[in-house]
Amino acid sequence: MPLVRLSLLIVAVGSLLSCQSAPQAPEHAGLLVLHNLNLVDVEQGKLQANQLVVVQQDRIVAIAPEQDLAKYPDATQIDAGGQYLIPGLWDMHVHFEGRDLVEDNALLLPVYLAYGITGVREAASNLAPVVLSWRQQVEQGRLLGPKIFTAGQMFEGIDSLWDGDLEVGTEQQMRDGMDKLQHMQVDFIKITENTLQPDLYLATIREARRRGFLVSSHVPYGTSIGELSDAGLSSIEHASYLLRLGFADEGQTAAAVRAGQLTIQQAADHYKTGFDQQLAIKGYQQLAAQHVAVTPTLIGGRQLAHLHDTDHSHDQFLQYLTKDFTASYQWRIDRMKGETAEQQQQRKDKEQLIAAQLPYLWQAGVTLLAGSDSAALNTYVYPAQALHDELELFQQAGLTPAQILQTATINGARFMRQDQDYGSIAVGKKAELVLLHDNPLQNISATRQVQALLYQGQWYDKSQLEQLLQKAAARKQQLEH
Ligand SMILES: [Zn+2]
């Protein structure tokens, strides 16, 4: 199948129609009809068999039963062979980072598309100006990659561990930083807890909300989750923090840290034993009531828990990652080398306990967002592929495939207030569509078998997606020599 450029077809039809003397254009020229489809309704978690989807430029203009195909004789028709159509997947937590890794990250952008991922939420990095430029170029169709939402730089305290963050020590500095991010037109605010003081942490959330921003954050030991929610937090990044809700004295512990009566290490040790599941569930209900979403990011913890018993040297995805990119994995590997067998087991147990929270969170009504936390600094959390790993971990944790699909489609679109255009297959929405070989409502692993993609008005069949991957692998080789 040659590349189908709908936008060009539309221009041709438009010019013919505007000219009275020209022969009349066929009524449906310029339309693309994808037919013989099993359409996955992610909102209802149901399959609609024998459907067709009509696309004009980059929008869905009609959805109809297969027998309506005869109504579109002049449209470009693509027979989907009874395969399964889902909306493009969104990875709601990635980082494009590394001052010397601009090209190494850039080559991965088309790889996201080949993996069925048409949107990413970039949770801040030391490449903010680059990421903002990519966001614009993708939007304008000058760069092939997923739609990008970015936090730009994240808020931190003075002398934090991180490079390229926005380090603030006073409310005035925080407001100046917020001005800067507003000027950069970031899509949301991200806050992390390395050295940012608790009171300023809460003030940053309030200021972000006052200015109309969504705000995502970690959880410092010096603030309770309830305090963050009350301040207006939009999402908690990493479900590991939620375990603190299983402790009756979470609030007192945070207050003790803030008062200097307890060190961070003592607080961390305190939370190691005594988790109460019923108490945690009450906390999740409170999160749901306050509309705080959660991005679990399980795959990072899984990879670390199995670092000592997994050989990654033959991982297929390494063909897209430069040696410079994977060199940044080493710091965590080194940091964990001294772990005892007992510590390794504790890590695995904790990882299991975190994963086990997902069904409880769902039942409590908490919005879950699928995010991989893929980043050069996050060891063996491979860009694009890690979202699929994450979705499989959700399945192992006990969520249904229908629930999991929501976390990677409509939930993200709603969270970003973009669901008028994205997140499901519906008339009027953008036609960012992924064709799968198998039914993802039976097994979420089906999302790995991407057969074709419609994105920005262009159809990519399997061989064209394969070409995108080959180009990325070739670019990786080129950068290494
Ligand atoms: Zn992250």
From TrEMBL:
Residues 84-250, 359-458 form the Amidohydrolase-related domain. Keywords: Signal. It comes from the Bacteria. InterPro entries: Amidohydro-rel, Metal-dep_hydrolase_composite, Metal_Hydrolase, Metallo-dep_Hydrolase. Residues 1-24 form the signal peptide. This is Amidohydrolase family protein. It comes from Rheinheimera marina. The lineage of its organism: Bacteria, Pseudomonadati, Pseudomonadota, Gammaproteobacteria, Chromatiales.
